[in-house]
Write a structure and sequence with these properties.
5 helices; about 35% helix; two-stranded antiparallel ribbon
Length: about 190
């Protein structure tokens, strides 16, 4: 249960982090790279971008993604969102650090902290409210559902990713891989890897 609360903390921190970098152009690891000509392009981008732009991205081994269906109703959407908030799932938060020197960034890192934080707790009603908000406000009937498998600390996890088949965009709200990444960081890392 405490791990569930810390996963919620991750989602809140991700939203707050996005707000703290306002005024900065951002992207996410699903959209950056290969044009979104198919739903699968999102996952190809994620698998390429995760270890490249997340400083400790090698802590997670992304294994596979599989389409498992299409959202037919709100009850089904809520069922999958609840699975993403299960107690066994990872917890953590992201931090962004960068030092600017004139117009250039001297250093930039994005880390995911996978150590459970036992100090953050949410009431059951708050957790239910967050699950309902993601399921009712951000996931649409007709969105495709993909099961993303990954390994963390030698344990395999399943995370459900929702994609609009018309726009080819992933629902990033409530998605632990849907971080807003500043383009300054992307450019810094691209230059560093040249």
């Amino acid at each position: 249960m405490k791990t569930t609360f810390t996963l919620l903390f991750l989602i809140i921190c991700t939203c707050m982090q996005a707000q703290s970098i306002h005024g900065t152009e951002t992207t996410n690891l699903f959209e950056y790279g290969k044009p979104l000509i198919s739903v699968e392009s999102n996952f190809e981008n994620l698998f390429r971008n995760w270890p490249k732009f997340i400083s400790n991205g090698n802590d997670i081994d992304l294994l596979s993604y599989t389409k498992i269906g299409v959202i037919k109703n709100r009850k089904q959407a809520k069922k999958y969102v609840e699975k993403n908030f299960q107690p066994e799932l990872i917890s953590g938060y992201n931090t962004i650090g960068g030092q600017k020197s004139g117009a250039n960034i001297e250093e930039s890192h994005i880390y995911m902290n996978f150590e459970p934080s036992l100090n953050q707790q949410f009431s059951k009603s708050k957790m239910k409210e967050m699950i309902n908000t993601v399921a009712n406000e951000y996931i649409n009937i007709g969105d495709e559902v993909y099961e993303l498998k990954f390994v963390l600390r030698l344990k395999t996890y399943k995370f459900y990713v929702f994609v609009n088949p018309e726009t080819k965009n992933v629902v990033t709200k409530g998605n632990i891989f849907g971080l807003d990444i500043p383009m300054d960081h992307i450019k810094y890392m691209e230059n560093k890897l040249k």
